[in-house]
Amino acid sequence: MRRVRSCVTAAALGVCLVSFGAGCSGSGEGYRIGSLHDTSVRTIAVPMFENLTYANGLEARLTEAIITEIHHKTPWRVVPTAQAQTTLEGTITDSSLRTLSTERGYVEQNAYVITVDFSWSDNARGEAKVVRHGFRGVGSFVPAQGVGEPIEIGEREAIAELARDIVAELASDW
Questions:
Q1: How far apart are CA 62 and CA 148, in angstroms?
Q2: pTM of the full structure
Q3: How far lies 135's CA from each of 12, 82, 111, in Å?
Q4: Partners of 58 in the beta sheet?
Q5: Using one digit for the tens of pLDDT, what is the confidence trace for 61-74?
Q6: Higher pLDDT, 81 or 108
Q7: HSE on the CB side for 31, CA within 13 Å?
Q8: What is the pLDDT of residues 37-54, one digit of tens each?
Q9: In this structure, are residues 76 and 119 in contact, taking their beta carbons and an 8 Å threshold?
Q10: Secondary structure E strands in 60-160
């Protein structure tokens, strides 16, 4: 009996993990399979994030990554602000390098860190649904001799992580 219960649990978990853009949500009403994002929202505007750093073009790459993530992971359509039910706005407040490891005085691994503040607002009510400050994405790269990865690898990873995490923050409460 215990083995059957384990198989059923594993199968249910497998269905949740395989469902693209979906997941299991343990709400007060039991479990559900489906989108974790608010299905009453149909449209979202994502204006270009503001960039307070010296990292040229970072705002365009981050905004594009977020829009791509919204298309892939949510039921929402990205539209111009005038036509949207909700708006996701943000500001890149910092981009920096951090040393992760050194060997004999030489940097072996660095982290590229991007910090943002963002808010997701309901346009009809004019109220914020989600507000986050100091939200970070980190991407590592190896500039060490022999490997010599460019800083853009760390930047790309940090942007991808931020896009995933920001869109995940827009999920329904569960």
A1: 24
A2: 0.78
A3: 32, 27, 16
A4: none
A5: 999 999 999 999 99
A6: 81
A7: 9
A8: 778 899 999 999 999 999
A9: no
A10: 77-78, 86-103, 106-122, 127-141
